[in-house]
Specification:
By secondary structure, this protein is of the alpha/beta class. The chain is 42% helix and 16% strand. It has a 7-stranded parallel sheet with strand order 3-2-1-4-7-8-12, sandwiched between helices. A two-stranded antiparallel ribbon has the order 5-6. α2 packs parallel to α4. Bound molecules: nicotinamide-adenine-dinucleotide and thymidine-5'-diphosphate.
Length: 360
Protein backbone atom coordinates (compact mmCIF):
# COMPACT_ATOMS: atom_id res chain seq x y z
CA UNK A 1 0.00 0.00 0.00
CA UNK A 2 1.42 3.37 -1.05
CA UNK A 3 0.79 6.45 1.06
CA UNK A 4 0.67 9.58 -1.07
CA UNK A 5 0.70 13.17 0.09
CA UNK A 6 -1.01 15.34 -2.52
CA UNK A 7 -0.63 19.08 -1.98
CA UNK A 8 -3.26 21.44 -3.41
CA UNK A 9 -5.71 18.58 -3.95
CA UNK A 10 -8.77 20.78 -3.41
CA UNK A 11 -7.94 22.87 -6.48
CA UNK A 12 -8.75 22.26 -10.12
CA UNK A 13 -6.09 19.78 -11.31
CA UNK A 14 -5.33 18.30 -7.87
CA UNK A 15 -8.97 17.32 -7.29
CA UNK A 16 -9.25 15.81 -10.78
CA UNK A 17 -6.03 13.89 -10.09
CA UNK A 18 -7.35 12.51 -6.79
CA UNK A 19 -10.62 11.45 -8.46
CA UNK A 20 -8.66 9.77 -11.26
CA UNK A 21 -6.25 8.00 -8.93
CA UNK A 22 -8.83 6.68 -6.46
CA UNK A 23 -10.72 5.12 -9.38
CA UNK A 24 -7.62 3.78 -11.17
CA UNK A 25 -5.51 2.38 -8.34
CA UNK A 26 -6.75 0.07 -5.57
CA UNK A 27 -3.65 0.09 -3.39
CA UNK A 28 -3.06 3.57 -2.17
CA UNK A 29 -4.07 6.10 0.47
CA UNK A 30 -4.16 9.79 -0.34
CA UNK A 31 -3.39 12.49 2.24
CA UNK A 32 -4.53 15.76 0.70
CA UNK A 33 -2.91 18.84 2.27
CA UNK A 34 -4.63 22.02 1.09
CA UNK A 35 -4.96 25.48 2.59
CA UNK A 36 -8.35 26.09 0.96
CA UNK A 37 -7.40 29.46 -0.45
CA UNK A 38 -9.95 31.17 -2.68
CA UNK A 39 -9.01 28.61 -5.39
CA UNK A 40 -9.51 25.47 -3.30
CA UNK A 41 -12.87 24.06 -2.29
CA UNK A 42 -14.25 20.95 -0.62
CA UNK A 43 -16.97 21.15 -3.28
CA UNK A 44 -14.33 19.73 -5.66
CA UNK A 45 -13.95 16.63 -3.48
CA UNK A 46 -17.58 15.58 -3.22
CA UNK A 47 -18.63 12.09 -4.36
CA UNK A 48 -15.06 10.77 -4.76
CA UNK A 49 -14.79 7.08 -5.69
CA UNK A 50 -13.36 4.92 -2.86
CA UNK A 51 -13.46 8.01 -0.64
CA UNK A 52 -12.40 6.00 2.44
CA UNK A 53 -8.86 6.11 0.98
CA UNK A 54 -8.86 9.92 0.76
CA UNK A 55 -7.97 11.95 3.86
CA UNK A 56 -8.27 15.73 3.81
CA UNK A 57 -5.98 17.89 5.94
CA UNK A 58 -6.60 21.63 5.91
CA UNK A 59 -3.26 23.41 6.17
CA UNK A 60 -0.42 25.36 4.65
CA UNK A 61 2.60 23.89 2.84
CA UNK A 62 4.59 26.73 4.44
CA UNK A 63 3.83 25.28 7.90
CA UNK A 64 6.96 23.19 8.59
CA UNK A 65 5.61 21.39 11.65
CA UNK A 66 2.38 20.42 9.96
CA UNK A 67 4.16 19.12 6.84
CA UNK A 68 6.49 17.09 9.05
CA UNK A 69 3.54 15.67 10.98
CA UNK A 70 1.61 14.68 7.83
CA UNK A 71 4.71 12.91 6.47
CA UNK A 72 5.54 10.97 9.59
CA UNK A 73 2.06 10.14 10.91
CA UNK A 74 1.04 8.67 7.57
CA UNK A 75 4.26 7.01 6.52
CA UNK A 76 4.29 8.96 3.24
CA UNK A 77 6.44 7.54 0.45
CA UNK A 78 5.27 9.67 -2.48
CA UNK A 79 4.54 13.41 -2.68
CA UNK A 80 2.68 14.86 -5.66
CA UNK A 81 2.96 18.63 -5.37
CA UNK A 82 0.23 20.76 -6.99
CA UNK A 83 -0.27 23.48 -4.35
CA UNK A 84 0.42 26.90 -5.82
CA UNK A 85 -0.92 30.31 -6.58
CA UNK A 86 -1.81 29.90 -10.24
CA UNK A 87 -3.48 32.88 -11.89
CA UNK A 88 -1.21 35.10 -14.01
CA UNK A 89 -3.49 38.16 -13.65
CA UNK A 90 -3.42 37.84 -9.84
CA UNK A 91 0.38 37.56 -9.96
CA UNK A 92 0.48 40.89 -11.81
CA UNK A 93 -1.74 42.67 -9.29
CA UNK A 94 -0.25 40.97 -6.19
CA UNK A 95 2.92 38.91 -6.71
CA UNK A 96 3.86 38.36 -3.06
CA UNK A 97 1.59 35.37 -2.42
CA UNK A 98 3.23 33.66 -5.41
CA UNK A 99 6.69 34.05 -3.94
CA UNK A 100 5.48 32.71 -0.61
CA UNK A 101 3.58 29.61 -1.72
CA UNK A 102 5.29 28.69 -4.97
CA UNK A 103 8.89 29.27 -3.94
CA UNK A 104 9.02 29.18 -0.15
CA UNK A 105 6.28 26.53 0.10
CA UNK A 106 8.10 24.23 -2.34
CA UNK A 107 11.34 24.76 -0.42
CA UNK A 108 9.70 23.85 2.90
CA UNK A 109 8.24 20.68 1.39
CA UNK A 110 11.59 19.68 -0.10
CA UNK A 111 13.40 20.23 3.18
CA UNK A 112 10.77 18.26 5.08
CA UNK A 113 10.90 15.24 2.76
CA UNK A 114 14.68 15.33 2.59
CA UNK A 115 14.90 15.09 6.38
CA UNK A 116 12.07 12.61 6.73
CA UNK A 117 13.32 10.26 3.98
CA UNK A 118 17.02 10.36 4.83
CA UNK A 119 18.86 7.18 5.80
CA UNK A 120 21.93 9.02 7.07
CA UNK A 121 23.63 12.35 6.33
CA UNK A 122 24.61 11.19 2.82
CA UNK A 123 21.79 8.91 1.73
CA UNK A 124 18.06 9.18 1.03
CA UNK A 125 15.76 6.16 0.81
CA UNK A 126 15.69 4.97 -2.83
CA UNK A 127 12.04 3.84 -2.70
CA UNK A 128 10.50 7.32 -2.20
CA UNK A 129 9.53 9.93 -4.77
CA UNK A 130 8.74 13.66 -5.02
CA UNK A 131 6.81 14.68 -8.14
CA UNK A 132 6.50 18.38 -8.92
CA UNK A 133 3.76 19.83 -11.15
CA UNK A 134 4.81 22.77 -13.27
CA UNK A 135 3.86 24.74 -16.33
CA UNK A 136 4.96 25.55 -19.89
CA UNK A 137 4.95 29.22 -18.88
CA UNK A 138 8.46 28.86 -17.40
CA UNK A 139 9.83 28.75 -20.97
CA UNK A 140 8.54 32.22 -21.86
CA UNK A 141 6.91 33.06 -25.16
CA UNK A 142 7.26 31.98 -28.80
CA UNK A 143 6.88 33.84 -32.09
CA UNK A 144 4.48 32.26 -34.58
CA UNK A 145 7.28 30.62 -36.60
CA UNK A 146 9.40 29.29 -33.69
CA UNK A 147 9.55 25.56 -32.87
CA UNK A 148 7.65 24.26 -29.84
CA UNK A 149 9.30 24.22 -26.37
CA UNK A 150 11.36 21.12 -25.70
CA UNK A 151 12.62 20.24 -22.21
CA UNK A 152 15.99 21.87 -22.88
CA UNK A 153 14.53 25.18 -24.06
CA UNK A 154 15.90 28.10 -22.07
CA UNK A 155 13.90 29.11 -19.01
CA UNK A 156 12.62 32.67 -19.61
CA UNK A 157 9.55 33.31 -17.44
CA UNK A 158 7.71 36.57 -18.18
CA UNK A 159 5.12 36.90 -15.37
CA UNK A 160 5.64 36.76 -11.61
CA UNK A 161 3.60 33.51 -11.69
CA UNK A 162 5.87 31.93 -14.29
CA UNK A 163 9.00 33.20 -12.52
CA UNK A 164 7.87 31.70 -9.21
CA UNK A 165 7.15 28.35 -10.88
CA UNK A 166 10.54 28.42 -12.63
CA UNK A 167 12.21 29.05 -9.26
CA UNK A 168 10.37 26.11 -7.73
CA UNK A 169 11.37 23.85 -10.65
CA UNK A 170 15.01 24.82 -10.11
CA UNK A 171 14.79 24.05 -6.39
CA UNK A 172 13.28 20.62 -7.04
CA UNK A 173 15.95 19.82 -9.60
CA UNK A 174 18.71 20.95 -7.24
CA UNK A 175 17.51 18.54 -4.53
CA UNK A 176 18.06 15.68 -6.97
CA UNK A 177 21.56 16.80 -7.89
CA UNK A 178 22.70 17.83 -4.43
CA UNK A 179 20.97 15.38 -2.11
CA UNK A 180 19.95 12.56 -4.44
CA UNK A 181 16.26 13.12 -3.67
CA UNK A 182 14.32 10.99 -6.19
CA UNK A 183 12.31 13.59 -8.11
CA UNK A 184 10.46 14.02 -11.40
CA UNK A 185 8.92 17.19 -12.86
CA UNK A 186 6.15 17.65 -15.43
CA UNK A 187 5.74 20.97 -17.23
CA UNK A 188 2.26 21.09 -18.70
CA UNK A 189 0.40 23.43 -21.02
CA UNK A 190 -2.95 25.15 -20.20
CA UNK A 191 -5.52 22.76 -18.75
CA UNK A 192 -9.31 22.97 -18.97
CA UNK A 193 -12.19 20.78 -17.80
CA UNK A 194 -14.45 20.21 -14.77
CA UNK A 195 -13.87 22.16 -11.53
CA UNK A 196 -11.66 24.89 -12.97
CA UNK A 197 -12.04 28.10 -11.00
CA UNK A 198 -14.04 30.56 -13.13
CA UNK A 199 -11.35 33.24 -13.24
CA UNK A 200 -9.52 31.32 -16.00
CA UNK A 201 -10.39 31.85 -19.69
CA UNK A 202 -12.54 28.84 -20.56
CA UNK A 203 -14.88 28.61 -17.52
CA UNK A 204 -15.17 32.40 -17.35
CA UNK A 205 -16.27 32.60 -20.99
CA UNK A 206 -18.73 29.69 -20.67
CA UNK A 207 -20.45 31.21 -17.62
CA UNK A 208 -20.44 34.79 -18.90
CA UNK A 209 -21.86 33.68 -22.23
CA UNK A 210 -24.69 31.67 -20.63
CA UNK A 211 -25.60 34.73 -18.53
CA UNK A 212 -25.32 37.23 -21.35
CA UNK A 213 -22.37 39.05 -19.80
CA UNK A 214 -19.50 40.52 -21.89
CA UNK A 215 -16.77 38.08 -23.03
CA UNK A 216 -13.57 40.07 -22.34
CA UNK A 217 -10.80 39.26 -24.82
CA UNK A 218 -7.43 40.70 -23.86
CA UNK A 219 -5.66 42.61 -26.64
CA UNK A 220 -6.32 41.26 -30.14
CA UNK A 221 -7.24 37.73 -28.96
CA UNK A 222 -4.64 36.16 -31.24
CA UNK A 223 -2.54 34.70 -28.41
CA UNK A 224 -2.06 30.95 -28.66
CA UNK A 225 -2.18 28.29 -25.94
CA UNK A 226 -1.76 24.49 -26.23
CA UNK A 227 -4.98 23.49 -24.41
CA UNK A 228 -5.04 20.04 -22.76
CA UNK A 229 -8.06 18.33 -21.19
CA UNK A 230 -7.38 17.90 -17.47
CA UNK A 231 -7.92 14.12 -17.41
CA UNK A 232 -5.11 13.70 -19.96
CA UNK A 233 -2.85 15.73 -17.67
CA UNK A 234 -3.76 13.54 -14.68
CA UNK A 235 -2.86 10.38 -16.63
CA UNK A 236 0.40 11.97 -17.74
CA UNK A 237 1.38 12.76 -14.15
CA UNK A 238 0.61 9.24 -12.98
CA UNK A 239 2.48 7.70 -15.93
CA UNK A 240 5.56 9.80 -15.20
CA UNK A 241 5.37 8.97 -11.48
CA UNK A 242 5.33 5.28 -12.36
CA UNK A 243 7.76 5.13 -15.29
CA UNK A 244 9.62 8.45 -15.54
CA UNK A 245 13.36 8.56 -14.99
CA UNK A 246 14.40 10.16 -11.69
CA UNK A 247 15.86 13.65 -12.03
CA UNK A 248 14.09 14.24 -15.36
CA UNK A 249 11.60 16.80 -16.62
CA UNK A 250 8.78 15.85 -19.03
CA UNK A 251 6.72 18.26 -21.13
CA UNK A 252 2.99 17.56 -21.33
CA UNK A 253 0.69 19.05 -23.97
CA UNK A 254 -1.66 18.33 -26.87
CA UNK A 255 0.00 20.12 -29.81
CA UNK A 256 -3.09 22.36 -30.10
CA UNK A 257 -2.56 25.88 -31.45
CA UNK A 258 -5.88 27.77 -31.44
CA UNK A 259 -6.04 31.49 -30.72
CA UNK A 260 -7.96 32.69 -27.66
CA UNK A 261 -10.52 34.17 -30.02
CA UNK A 262 -11.07 30.80 -31.71
CA UNK A 263 -11.58 29.14 -28.31
CA UNK A 264 -14.21 31.71 -27.33
CA UNK A 265 -15.91 31.43 -30.74
CA UNK A 266 -16.10 27.64 -30.38
CA UNK A 267 -17.69 27.99 -26.92
CA UNK A 268 -20.20 30.42 -28.45
CA UNK A 269 -21.00 27.97 -31.26
CA UNK A 270 -21.66 25.14 -28.78
CA UNK A 271 -23.98 27.38 -26.75
CA UNK A 272 -25.81 28.66 -29.87
CA UNK A 273 -26.50 25.04 -30.82
CA UNK A 274 -27.56 23.94 -27.32
CA UNK A 275 -29.49 27.08 -26.36
CA UNK A 276 -31.14 28.19 -29.61
CA UNK A 277 -33.89 30.01 -27.70
CA UNK A 278 -31.53 31.99 -25.50
CA UNK A 279 -31.94 35.74 -25.84
CA UNK A 280 -28.12 35.88 -26.07
CA UNK A 281 -27.86 33.75 -29.25
CA UNK A 282 -25.66 34.38 -31.22
CA UNK A 283 -23.34 34.47 -28.21
CA UNK A 284 -20.45 35.86 -30.27
CA UNK A 285 -22.15 39.25 -30.07
CA UNK A 286 -21.08 39.31 -26.40
CA UNK A 287 -17.35 39.43 -27.32
CA UNK A 288 -15.58 42.65 -26.31
CA UNK A 289 -11.90 43.49 -26.73
CA UNK A 290 -10.40 44.90 -23.53
CA UNK A 291 -7.04 46.27 -22.41
CA UNK A 292 -4.33 43.64 -22.75
CA UNK A 293 -2.53 41.88 -19.90
CA UNK A 294 0.87 43.53 -19.26
CA UNK A 295 3.70 41.33 -20.57
CA UNK A 296 1.15 38.99 -22.19
CA UNK A 297 2.90 35.91 -23.64
CA UNK A 298 1.97 35.57 -27.30
CA UNK A 299 2.28 31.85 -27.89
CA UNK A 300 3.00 28.61 -26.03
CA UNK A 301 3.59 25.33 -27.88
CA UNK A 302 4.83 22.06 -26.42
CA UNK A 303 7.11 19.45 -27.96
CA UNK A 304 5.87 16.21 -26.33
CA UNK A 305 8.20 13.73 -28.05
CA UNK A 306 10.01 12.87 -24.83
CA UNK A 307 6.98 11.83 -22.77
CA UNK A 308 5.50 9.91 -25.72
CA UNK A 309 8.78 8.13 -26.44
CA UNK A 310 9.96 7.42 -22.89
CA UNK A 311 6.89 6.69 -20.79
CA UNK A 312 4.26 5.81 -23.37
CA UNK A 313 1.69 8.49 -22.65
CA UNK A 314 -0.55 9.94 -25.34
CA UNK A 315 -3.28 12.57 -25.01
CA UNK A 316 -6.70 11.09 -25.70
CA UNK A 317 -9.25 13.91 -25.67
CA UNK A 318 -9.18 16.26 -28.65
CA UNK A 319 -9.93 19.95 -28.20
CA UNK A 320 -13.37 19.87 -29.83
CA UNK A 321 -14.59 16.98 -27.63
CA UNK A 322 -12.94 18.44 -24.55
CA UNK A 323 -14.72 21.77 -25.02
CA UNK A 324 -18.04 19.96 -25.50
CA UNK A 325 -17.48 18.02 -22.26
CA UNK A 326 -16.46 21.17 -20.41
CA UNK A 327 -19.41 23.31 -21.54
CA UNK A 328 -21.74 20.43 -20.60
CA UNK A 329 -20.11 20.10 -17.16
CA UNK A 330 -20.55 23.81 -16.34
CA UNK A 331 -24.16 23.72 -17.53
CA UNK A 332 -24.93 20.61 -15.45
CA UNK A 333 -23.22 21.80 -12.28
CA UNK A 334 -24.97 25.05 -11.48
CA UNK A 335 -24.84 24.30 -7.72
CA UNK A 336 -21.04 24.10 -7.83
CA UNK A 337 -20.91 27.30 -9.89
CA UNK A 338 -23.16 29.14 -7.46
CA UNK A 339 -21.22 28.05 -4.37
CA UNK A 340 -17.87 28.99 -5.92
CA UNK A 341 -19.00 32.34 -7.27
CA UNK A 342 -21.00 33.39 -4.20
CA UNK A 343 -17.77 33.98 -2.28
CA UNK A 344 -17.17 37.69 -1.69
CA UNK A 345 -13.55 37.19 -2.73
CA UNK A 346 -14.65 36.18 -6.23
CA UNK A 347 -16.81 39.26 -6.69
CA UNK A 348 -13.99 41.55 -5.59
CA UNK A 349 -11.48 39.81 -7.88
CA UNK A 350 -13.76 40.29 -10.90
CA UNK A 351 -14.20 43.94 -9.99
CA UNK A 352 -10.45 44.41 -9.43
CA UNK A 353 -9.30 42.74 -12.62
CA UNK A 354 -11.90 44.03 -15.06
CA UNK A 355 -13.15 47.42 -13.87
CA UNK A 356 -10.48 49.58 -15.46
CA UNK A 357 -9.88 47.57 -18.63
CA UNK A 358 -11.29 49.92 -21.22
CA UNK A 359 -13.33 48.37 -24.00
CA UNK A 360 -12.22 48.88 -27.59
P1 LIG B 1 -5.71 25.98 -8.52
O1 LIG B 1 -5.41 27.44 -8.36
O2 LIG B 1 -7.03 25.56 -9.06
O3 LIG B 1 -5.52 25.22 -7.12
C1 LIG B 1 -4.43 25.45 -6.28
C2 LIG B 1 -4.71 24.71 -4.98
O4 LIG B 1 -3.57 24.91 -4.10
C3 LIG B 1 -5.94 25.23 -4.23
O5 LIG B 1 -6.72 24.15 -3.78
C4 LIG B 1 -5.35 26.01 -3.06
O6 LIG B 1 -6.19 26.03 -1.91
C5 LIG B 1 -4.05 25.24 -2.81
N1 LIG B 1 -3.04 26.07 -2.13
C6 LIG B 1 -2.63 27.32 -2.48
N2 LIG B 1 -1.70 27.76 -1.61
C7 LIG B 1 -1.51 26.75 -0.70
C8 LIG B 1 -0.66 26.60 0.42
N3 LIG B 1 0.17 27.57 0.81
N4 LIG B 1 -0.70 25.44 1.10
C9 LIG B 1 -1.54 24.44 0.72
N5 LIG B 1 -2.37 24.54 -0.34
C10 LIG B 1 -2.36 25.68 -1.04
O7 LIG B 1 -4.51 25.42 -9.41
P2 LIG B 1 -4.51 24.37 -10.59
O8 LIG B 1 -4.92 25.05 -11.84
O9 LIG B 1 -5.20 23.15 -10.14
O10 LIG B 1 -2.93 24.10 -10.70
C11 LIG B 1 -2.31 23.09 -9.91
C12 LIG B 1 -0.84 23.03 -10.25
O11 LIG B 1 -0.67 22.78 -11.66
C13 LIG B 1 -0.08 24.32 -9.98
O12 LIG B 1 1.18 24.00 -9.46
C14 LIG B 1 0.03 24.98 -11.36
O13 LIG B 1 1.19 25.80 -11.42
C15 LIG B 1 0.16 23.76 -12.24
N6 LIG B 1 -0.32 23.94 -13.62
C16 LIG B 1 -1.56 24.44 -13.87
C17 LIG B 1 -2.00 24.56 -15.19
C18 LIG B 1 -3.38 25.09 -15.51
O14 LIG B 1 -3.70 25.30 -16.68
N7 LIG B 1 -4.26 25.26 -14.55
C19 LIG B 1 -1.17 24.18 -16.24
C20 LIG B 1 0.11 23.66 -15.94
C21 LIG B 1 0.52 23.54 -14.63
P1 LIG C 1 -5.70 32.03 -18.44
O1 LIG C 1 -6.84 31.08 -18.47
O2 LIG C 1 -5.63 33.07 -17.38
O3 LIG C 1 -4.37 31.14 -18.46
P2 LIG C 1 -2.81 31.59 -18.70
O4 LIG C 1 -2.69 33.04 -18.51
O5 LIG C 1 -2.14 30.80 -17.62
O6 LIG C 1 -2.47 31.14 -20.08
O7 LIG C 1 -5.66 32.79 -19.85
C1 LIG C 1 -5.59 32.07 -21.06
C2 LIG C 1 -5.48 33.07 -22.17
O8 LIG C 1 -6.69 33.83 -22.24
C3 LIG C 1 -4.38 34.09 -21.97
O9 LIG C 1 -3.78 34.40 -23.23
C4 LIG C 1 -5.10 35.31 -21.43
C5 LIG C 1 -6.46 35.23 -22.10
N1 LIG C 1 -7.60 35.80 -21.33
C6 LIG C 1 -8.46 36.73 -21.95
O10 LIG C 1 -8.29 37.09 -23.13
N2 LIG C 1 -9.50 37.24 -21.22
C7 LIG C 1 -9.71 36.88 -19.91
O11 LIG C 1 -10.67 37.40 -19.27
C8 LIG C 1 -8.83 35.92 -19.31
C9 LIG C 1 -9.02 35.48 -17.87
C10 LIG C 1 -7.79 35.40 -20.06
Amino acid sequence: MKNIMVTGGAGFIGSNFIRFLLAAEPDLNIYNLDLLTYAGSLENLKRLPNSDRHHFIEGDICDRDLVKKVLSENDIDLVVHFAAETHVDRSILGPEAFIRTNIRGTFILLEAVRKYWKIDSRKIRPDVHFHHISTDEVYGTLASDEPAFSEDHQISPNSPYAASKAASDHLVRSYFHTYGLPITITNCSNNYGPNQFPEKLIPLMILNAIEGKPLPIYGDGRQIRDWLYVEDHCRAIWTVVQSGKKGETYNVGRENQPTNLEIVQEICRILDRDLPDSQFTPHENLIVYVTDRPGHDRRYAMNINKIIGEVEWNPQVNLKDGLELTVAWYRENSDWVKKIRDQQEYQSWMENNYHDRSIS
